[in-house]
Design goal:
heterodimer; A: 435 residues; alpha/beta; D-Maltodextrin-Binding Protein, domain 2; 2 domains; 5-stranded mixed β-sheet; 4-stranded mixed β-sheet; globular; B: mainly alpha; MetI-like fold; flat
């Protein structure tokens, strides 16, 4: 008996040391992880290998990538599409944390660029003579680090107009002509007043698509929404509070109370759910998809060359190359091509995403472009004029995207019936938990 | 053990060379003895150790994919997290635990977890037993019915959530439209905390009831038929037979299903995450249906605080261990009672 115990004790000890050894090995394997700021060793694209790119939503790259692949048999590009930015952001975070699994090119939502700029040495510096001066100033600045490295190529910009349902305006006895509509909503006060007039006439339809999107629209005119210039978080400023109070104040009367991008929100396009929507260029493809193309009988969308309170930019994305990419040179070559003005103009024509390239903005074709789905509105002219109207570029610090998420939660809580004051307090504690 | 190896030792001595000077011979025999001891030891190890080696692949795998992450999570939970570079920050001791335990969102998530767990596991087991009892009768097209209860299990949870999403949408969902037709108030599935738990538990039950029913069915078919004959001779009806014969006979299976569905029920993740239609997917803007696993995910992946996420993971782990021990105690109590 004694014997057996001694033996089994020894083997237990052995097993234990084996376990520890494997743990230590495992730990050190993990500990010796490559430095994320170190560039991966560059490799040639082998047979059957392709350059990978992940985009979200609709970048309109399908046809362009086909075109590229036909012209570059050696550098084939393969695209993965994720439907929502928020989902892709999480996957991106996971991959960045693991230091692997990233494609050669990643698409980044504009609001997340500050996080890249805050950790620039994980990304390839893409600055080159060829692309210098290619973009609108504010677009380029948002992707440039303190040391002057360019960590992302801007794809599109999001100058905002107002898209509206002309048929519902008519039903409410409001003018339907886009120039007249534009005159009625030059300030937020006018916009909300018109909304109150509208819902009185058509009580079953809300004035705008979601409290969240109208909040975002107003937020895009605030110079320091969440963070001060030195990146200290300051969410208790008067301007932000004013946006919050205004939006939540109108929630009961003018909003669909649906969460933006949710099922009810999408269904609202078809079901006469709302009459107006803040409308950056890229929103047009969302409107088309959700309403149905061709539009259901009687449904007429139109675009008014106006945005309450001046101009505003909503979104617009970037392409970046992580240092983990093993084909950085080809990746840069590809994104130089696909963000060139010519390609961006093709996307504008097919999808409506508005270019962020100076040369594209001055293009004659762009200015002449009309959109038949939107009652033949002169889309090119409208969005160019909206781009020119942008006079405030909100400051986005590294936490912008995260705080924006919490802010939208706060707005959504009020949609769901939480007292605005209580929801604001939760927002404050949510933000505190982010620091 | 020593005795058994002795003859081998003798044989070794016998075959050893006897010539050479005595000193040398002594060292040779000392060497031989050493070799002998080694060989003895090796054969002893063989007997003692090989069984462990045979089962070791599991434990080695477990050490790599189970134990190591577990311990590393514990290690990470003591550190701050550098959010810009996604790397470990400074050592902060138990700060992360303090944060999680005092975080009202975490407490809310615990309540949600238990609420969804109770709403799903309890009706699930009861329903599964009922379905199994029905399938155990002489039905026409038995295989068809048995296959169809398993069907929901084969459907990917993501696809299932999409289907349920259109059922449970607040404004344009099918259920609410039907309620509207009948003239009832619509239910605010994504708003009202308990209704949202009900909807999520519904998805979980839809998926797992058939699966558990088949396990119960297998157990029921192993019940000797003569017991039923004897029972009906004694004048016991169908219902009485079910309670007096079937249920006691499938008790071990029952315990197995209860334990597995408890563990599963405390780790519900996909359903609440995809049920949420707000962009953040944090179990509702007011965290009405954020479960604890979702909390860990949100803290780690979305908010990028791995230390806090790790601390929450450890706290949840300890809670589940506690419940497993409780389960174990109850099981022991029940089986002892059934033996006596």
């Amino acid at each position: 008996m004694h014997h057996i115990t001694a033996g089994s004790r020894r083997s237990t000890r052995l097993l234990a040391s084996a376990a520890v050894a494997s743990l230590v090995l495992g730990m050190s394997a993990c500990g010796s992880d490559d430095d994320p700021t170190k560039s991966a060793e560059q490799e040639k694209l082998g047979d059957g290998e392709s350059l990978t790119i992940t985009t979200f939503g609709e970048f309109g790259y399908d046809a362009l990538i086909e075109e590229w692949n036909a012209a570059h048999p050696d550098v084939q590009v393969e695209q993965t599409k994720v439907s929502l930015w928020d989902d892709w952001k999480n996957e991106l975070n996971t991959n960045l944390q693991a230091g692997s699994g990233l494609p050669d090119v990643v698409a980044i939502e504009g609001d997340f660029m500050p996080a890249l700029v805050a950790a620039p040495d994980r990304w390839v510096d893409l600055s080159s003579d060829e692309v210098e001066g290619r973009w609108l100033d504010f677009k380029e600045k948002a992707a440039t680090t303190a040391d002057g490295a360019l960590v992302g190529y801007a794809t599109d910009a999001g100058p905002e107009a107002i898209c509206y349902r002309a048929d519902l305006f008519k039903k409410a006895g409001l003018p339907t002509d886009r120039t007249e509509v534009a005159k009625l909503m030059t300030t937020w006060d006018d916009y909300y007043a018109l909304g109150e007039q509208f819902v009185k006439a058509v009580p079953d339809t809300a004035w705008y698509d979601a409290s969240g999107s109208i909040a975002q629209a107003m937020l895009n005119q605030v110079e320091f929404p969440f963070e001060q210039a030195d990146n200290t978080v300051d969410v208790e400023n008067d301007e932000l509070k004013a946006v919050y109070d205004t939006v939540t104040g109108y929630t009961p009367t003018l909003s669909t109370k649906a969460a933006q991008w949710g099922d009810d929100w999408s269904a609202g396009f078809k079901n006469d759910g709302f009459a107006t929507i803040p409308c950056p260029g890229w929103m047009r493809s969302n409107i088309k998809d959700n309403t149905g193309d061709p539009a259901p009988k009687g449904v007429t969308w139109d675009i008014a060359d106006v945005f309450p309170g001046g101009g505003g930019n909503w979104g617009g994305s970037y392409l970046a190359v992580p240092k983990s990419s093993t084909h950085q040179e080809q990746a840069q070559e590809f994104i130089t091509w696909i963000t060139a003005p010519e390609q961006q103009l093709k996307i504008f024509a097919s999808l409506g995403n508005f270019p962020s390239q100076v040369a594209a903005l001055e293009d004659g074709e762009l200015l002449k472009a009309t959109d038949p789905y939107f009652n033949g509105a002169p889309a090119g002219e409208i969005f160019s004029s909206r781009a020119a109207a942008i006079d405030v570029q909100p400051y986005h610090g590294p936490l912008y995207s995260d705080i924006l998420g919490k802010f939208q939660d706060a707005i959504n809580r009020v949609d769901q019936g939480t007292d605005p004051k209580e929801s604001w307090d939760t927002f404050l504690s949510d933000v505190a938990a982010l620091q | 053990m020593t005795n058994r190896t002795a003859p081998a030792g003798d044989a070794a001595t016998a075959t050893s060379p006897a010539d050479g000077p005595p000193e040398e011979r002594r060292t040779t025999s000392a060497r031989q003895r050493a070799r002998l001891i080694r060989r003895q030891r090796r054969s002893r190890w063989d007997v003692k150790l090989s069984p462990y080696l045979y089962v070791s692949p599991f434990f080695v795998l477990f050490a790599i994919v189970g134990l190591y992450p577990l311990l590393y999570t514990g290690y990470l939970s003591l550190f701050d997290w550098n959010r810009a570079y996604y790397v470990r920050g400074e050592f902060v001791g138990l700060d992360n635990y303090t944060f999680v335990l005092t975080d009202p969102v975490f407490r809310k998530s615990l309540v949600n977890t238990f609420s969804i767990f109770l709403m799903s596991s309890v009706p699930q087991v009861v329903l599964a037993v009922g379905v199994a009892a029905l399938l155990d009768t002489r039905l026409r097209g038995r295989t068809f019915w048995r296959m169809s209860v398993l069907l929901p299990f084969v459907v990917a949870p993501t696809a299932a959530v999409l289907i349920f999403g259109s059922l449970f949408a607040d404004r344009y969902g099918i259920i609410n439209q039907v309620l509207g037709e009948v003239g009832l108030e619509p239910i605010r599935w994504h708003v009202d905390r308990w209704w949202s738990h009900f909807a999520i538990a519904g998805m979980v039950n839809w998926r797992w009831t058939g699966y558990n029913a088949l396990i119960f069915l297998a157990a029921m078919q192993a019940v000797p038929r003569d017991l039923y004959e004897a029972a009906s001779l004694d004048g016991a009806g169908r219902v009485r037979q079910f309670f007096a014969v079937t249920l006691p006979m499938i008790r071990p299976t029952m315990i197995f299903v209860i334990i597995t569905s408890t563990i599963g029920g405390l780790q519900i993740f996909t359903e609440p995450r995809l049920f949420d239609d707000t962009p953040n997917r944090e179990g509702g803007p007011d965290h009405q249906y954020m479960t604890s696993t979702l909390y860990i995910y949100v803290k780690g992946i979305e908010d990028q605080f791995y230390g806090r996420a790790s601390a929450a993971a450890w706290i949840l782990f300890l809670i589940i261990v506690g419940i497993a021990l409780l389960n174990f105690a109850i099981t022991r109590f029940l089986t002892r009672r059934s033996v006596s």
